[in-house]
Amino acid sequence: MKDLQDIALDAARSAGAEYADIRISNHRTQNIRTREERVQSVSNGESFGFGVRVLVNGTWGFASSHIVDKNEIAKVTKRAVDIAKANRVIQLKPVMLAPVKSYEDTWKTPIKKDPFSVPLEEKINLLLKVNEEALNIKGASFCNSFMLIMNERKYFASTEGTYLDQDTYRIWPQFTVTAVDRDKGEFETGTSEIYPMGSGYEFVEENEMVALAPKIAEQAVEKLSAKSVDPGKKDIILDSTNLWLTIHESIGHPTELDRALGYEANYAGTSFLTVDKMGKLKLGSDIVNFAADKTIKGGLASVGYDDDGEKTKEWYLVKDGMFIDYQTTRDQVLWPEYQNARKEAGLPEVTESYGTCYGDSWSSIPFQRMPNIHLDPGKETLSPDDLIADTKDGIYITGRASYSIDQQRYNFQFSGQTFHEIKNGKITHMLKDVAYQANTKEFWNSCDAICDERFWKMGGSYYDGKGQPGQSNAVSHGCPPARFRKVNVINTGKTI
Questions:
Q1: Peptide bond into 469 cis (omega under 30)
Q2: Inter-CA distances, 267 with 270, 462, 474, Å
Q3: pLDDT tens-digit series, residues 38-57
Q4: What local confidence, expressed as pLDDT, does residue 267 receive?
Q5: Ranges of the chain whose pLDDT falls below 50
Q6: What are phi and psi of 470, to 5 degrees?
């Protein structure tokens, strides 16, 4: 691989590039889907190729190919240089790259069992057994299940002297049960609260889906007779299985620096967290701290190095409720808007990237993508039972469901899988038709209690879209259950 990579780097230098990198990568996927007693589909995919990125006179150029040999690499590198020169016509200001160290290293997702080595029959039989156990519950009418597996082997080299070999795994087992009341013509669903992880097949085994299936089926059946919620201002306790998605949408996306400066406006919107608010906006209560981290074990976005060749790290986006930083790449961190805002706010100088550059394929140009973003656990010893006991009128919400949020990631509405009414410190009964509404600033400032580290767990998104042409990134968000005071709860089942 090094010999092939050097061809690209030498060709780029000879053609006048001040910087170049090459990613040679192989992507494998497996997707298994079942419903009731039958297999719906099994698909296996593999994609192998390379992409070359060059910087010529302060302008990016990129080209790629699925033919990986010496002649093709030299030809495609020349094409990338030509594209950079053509792009110079519309370049408003030259790209400046933050300094980076050179590395020669390998990194692999820490796994115990390669999911691709597990026989297909074993994986199918597991999913069918999950369906069977779920449908043994009276009132459960349907069950579908799936398992998604991904492996990305990437070789990266740059003119900075870096040579990297990284081997990344992700896996996601999931199932949904549907309960039907045919007399009333109504149905409800229950989805297992298992979220994807950067792991091997041991993650599937640890979650004991067969044992979990009856519980999820019972939840779906119970929803049919649940009381419809009375809307109004209520305290809500959000389980980790629900809160991670709110973190993703209301904290993860608005702290992307390119979005904050308008570079995503045409596709995904902008951000209410403009650079003038850095170090000045009280985004949450004093107990709210958000850390970005691409190193944590099991994180979907965890790698050793990003696609700039920068070593990944951990840093704070929000500290003691104060918004203090963004997600950055090498070609963003020196932007004057960012640097000047930090200086004006009296924040420490940042001169290197946080390592959030990623391309989802060898054929995709890498750019800034969301890292794992986590809510720190509370410092006081506090359990979900303690939160419930201290709540007079509230709702405990678990699981993810429908949501919406505006293009500035400010005004939002989220629902969940299960809802339980809390009255005078006790769970009374299940509710349905629940969603909570707020804006990001009010919501996180209403957070008055966060459970301790014993209850911290990760959720995550297997597919997070961004860019034009669109790319998909996988990202995790860890958090414990937390309470939010006097949040607007609406009834989604009633119309005016």
A1: yes
A2: 9, 20, 19
A3: 999 999 999 999 999 999 99
A4: 85
A5: 496
A6: -65, 145
Amino acid letter, residue 165: D
pLDDT of residue 64: 98
Q: Are 213 and 236 in the same domain?
A: no
372 CB-near residues (< 8 Å, 6+ apart): 292, 293, 294, 296, 299, 300, 301, 302, 458, 460, 475, 476, 477, 478
Distance CA 50, CA 48 (A): 7
What distance in Å separates the CA atoms of residue 119 and residue 440, rounded to the nearest whole number? 45
CB burial readout 326-363, b (16+ within 10 A) else e: bbbbbbbbbbeebeebbeebeeeebebbbbbbbbbbbb
Determine, yes or no, domain membership for 496. no
Cβ contact 399:434 at 8 Å:
no
What is the pLDDT, as a whole number, of residue 494? Answer: 65
287, 382 Cβ separation under 8 angstroms: no
As a whole number of angstroms, the distance between CA 362 and CA 382 comes to: 46
Domain end residue (candidates: 191, 225, 259): 225
| Structure tokens, 118 | 């597990």
Asked whether residue 404 falls in the same domain as residue 332, the answer is yes
pLDDT computed for residue 25 by the predictor: 98
Chosen domain end from 188, 206, 225 = 225
Residues near 345 by beta carbon (within 8 Å), at least 6 away in sequence: 278, 279, 280
Same domain, 66 and 35: yes
Q: What pLDDT score was predicted for residue 496?
A: 46
| Residue 21, domain CATH | 3.30.2290.10
How many domains in the chain?
2
pLDDT at 429: 96
Contact predicate 287/376, CB 8 Å: no
- Identify whether residues 134 and 93 lie together within a single domain: yes
pLDDT of residue 495: 53
| Size of the chain in residues | 496
Domain that holds residue 49: 2-225
**Would residue 113 count as lying in a domain?**
yes
